[in-house]
Amino acid sequence: MPKAAVFWLGQIQSLPPPFLICGFFDFCQLRNRRDAAFD
């Protein structure tokens, strides 16, 4: 797993739920965008 993902997952406990949900979707969108760039 990328170190950035490990770090992000480590921040979950310090974030309120609404921000966590938005952050999760943003994280997935960034990951998908990165993967698409390599296609």
Tell me the span between the first and last alpha carbons.
20 Å
Number of discrete domains: 1
Radius of gyration: 11 Å
Structural class: mainly alpha
Report mean pLDDT, rounded to a whole number: 70
Number of strands: 0
User: Hey, roughly how much beta strand do the residues contain?
Assistant: under 5%
Low-confidence region ranges:
none
Main sheet record = none
Helix content: over 70%
N-to-C order of helices and strands: HH
Number of continuous helical runs: 2
- State the shape: flat
What labels would you give this structure?
mainly alpha, 2 helices, 0% strand, flat
Structure write-up:
Helices cover 77% and strands 0% of the residues. The chain is mainly α. The protein is flat and about 35 Å long.
Topology:
Elements: H1 3-10, H2 17-38
Summarize the structure.
This protein has helices spanning 3-10, 17-38. By secondary structure, it is mainly α.
